[in-house]
Amino acid sequence: MESTSHAGEPIEEPLRSPIAQAPISLILLPGGDRLESADSASAWKSYLGTLDREFEIQQVEVSQGFGPGLMAAIGRAQYPLILLATADRQFQPADLQVLLSIIDQVDLVTGCRKVPRAWWRRALAWCGNALAWVLLGLPFPESHCTAGATSWRRRWVARWLFGLRLFDPETPFRLGRREALVRILLQSRGSFALVEQLAKANHLECIMSEEAVAWNPPPQPPAESISFTKEARALFRRPNFGDAGLHLPGPASPPGNRPEAPTKAESAPS
Question: How would you classify the pairing of strands 108-113 and 174-177?
Fold first, then answer.
């Protein structure tokens, strides 16, 4: 399976050290109600227990904002791989294998949510690709990912303001190397923090990939109290990339205070 860099170029050989077999820190983002959240945590615990490796599970506290809560959870994570998912049934734990199959070659891989497209959308996309091939000589894109889960307006913002050439930059299902994610300072207090994380990873020259995964949309989209547009505008005007030490390659300490001995929320020894 071919991977792509943050610039969309093919990766011909592994550029990162192997890590797919490493222990995993799972961070569950806010999703369903209390019962659904408990069921989701149980399902993930059962699945991770089958992988014959150590793992931990923690949930994001958003009382201080989505971005700060996510950044604090990443700072508490103690294992080399960090997996983000929602505390509901949107994603299947088994699809973690899709992300693990790519992570050896990249710093961060996102799960593009599969969305059925109407026939006329597929036809329109084919015509656009054919026109680009005839006029510019561009090859037909080879990707199983499809746009749709992230609205075209927000995808446009992510692409043209922040340089993210991804079909689904808002997907919360993603797997990354801890040494890369702790270097990212999140300013956004709303769900735009998910786009911000990718944008700053792109700025820090992290290698990223996008793979298609199954998606079960929630019955009702989560209500947003903080404007996506305002946060995108604020980040574009005044981005904060943290201390200069975070920009250096290799392991880094997360911004802010990090406890010396983080406590495991749920763990299972290999």
Answer: antiparallel
What is the Cβ-side half-sphere exposure of residue 194, based on CA atoms within 13 angstroms?
Answer: 22
Those residues with Cβ within 8 angstroms of residue 129's Cβ, 6 or more apart along the chain or in another chain: 138, 140, 141
- Cite the DSSP H helix spans in the chain: 34-48, 66-76, 96-103, 119-136, 152-160, 178-181, 193-203, 228-237
User: Considering the chain, what percentage of its residues have pLDDT values greater than 90?
Assistant: 49
Rounded distance, CA 196 to CA 67, Å? Answer: 9
Residue 135 lies inside a defined structural domain of this protein:
no
Lowest-confidence pick of 77-86, 116-125, 258-267: 258-267
Tell me the residue type at 241: F
Residue 242 lies in a domain: yes
pLDDT digits (tens, 9 = 90+) for 128-183: 666 666 666 656 566 676 777 888 889 889 999 898 989 999 999 999 999 999 99
20's CB contacts (< 8 A; 6+ apart) are 100, 101, 103, 104
Orientation angle between helical segments 152-160 and 193-203, nearest 10 degrees: 30
CB atoms closer than 10 angstroms to residue 33: 10
Residue 250 above 60 pLDDT?
Answer: no
The pTM for the full model equals: 0.78
47: alpha, beta or left? (left if phi > 0; alpha if psi -120 to 50): alpha
Residue 61, domain extent: 24-116+149-247
Count: domains in the chain: 1
State which amino acid sits at residue 47: Y
Highest average pLDDT, of 43-47, 152-156, 240-244, 258-262, comes from 43-47
- Sheet containing 174-177: give its strands across: 55-59, 24-29, 81-86, 174-177, 108-113, 208-213
